[in-house]
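Task: sequence design from structure.
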């Protein structure tokens, strides 16, 4: 009965709004769109109509490489961009897999992964390339997984796990725990809780 009811509703909506139904069917997914151009063609065309004797200035799009189209078959490697506000750790690095500390749990990303956007929590980002595994501790950020086997990982802070001093982590955890216990205002409690969470994640990463 429920199936018959839903079928009637869908058929009625299609008959009542044929244009909307056609638009919905024709609407492409973002991963089905063609690769972006490297220049703002509309801006350049408009500029030449107004000032034909002067070369148009460069726009941000002029410095961007075209977005690769979605391949027909799954590639053997995952291309990873891993950037921080002050540096680029990986730039179009071809790897076998990355394991991301997503807010919903550890998430493994292989070539051909479905397009996804996920928030990062404090934890370990593992980059797997053959038999080599490089681990970073990330504080927070976002990961953008594209259908063309590209992954853009943006972190607020990140450091290779082998550069972390375990004694300083233990010291920081003790200090922030004490601050949390003695906090009297909401701001002090929030700041102390963040410190406890980050140092606890660091401690777990080092012990794991």
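Answer:
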């Amino acid at each position: 009965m429920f199936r018959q009811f839903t079928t009637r509703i869908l058929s009625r909506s299609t008959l009542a709004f044929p244009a909307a139904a056609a638009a919905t069917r024709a609407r492409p997914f973002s991963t089905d769109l063609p690769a972006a151009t490297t220049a703002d063609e509309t801006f350049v065309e408009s500029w030449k109509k107004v000032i034909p004797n002067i070369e148009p200035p460069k726009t941000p799009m002029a410095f961007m490489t075209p977005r690769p189209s979605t391949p027909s078959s799954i590639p053997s490697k995952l291309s990873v961009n891993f950037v921080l506000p002050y540096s680029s750790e990986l730039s179009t690095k071809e790897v076998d897999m990355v394991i991301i500390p997503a807010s919903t749990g550890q998430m493994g990303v292989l070539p051909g992964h479905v397009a996804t956007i996920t928030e990062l929590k404090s934890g370990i980002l593992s980059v797997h390339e053959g038999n080599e595994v490089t681990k970073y501790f990330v504080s927070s950020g976002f990961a953008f997984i594209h259908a063309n086997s590209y992954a853009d990982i943006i972190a607020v802070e990140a450091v290779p796990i082998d550069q972390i001093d375990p004694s300083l982590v233990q010291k920081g955890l003790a200090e922030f725990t004490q601050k949390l216990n003695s906090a009297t205002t909401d701001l002090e409690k929030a700041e102390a809780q963040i410190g406890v969470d980050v140092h606890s994640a660091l401690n777990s990463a080092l012990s794991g």
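Helices lie at 2-16, 18-26, 41-50, 166-182, 186-207.
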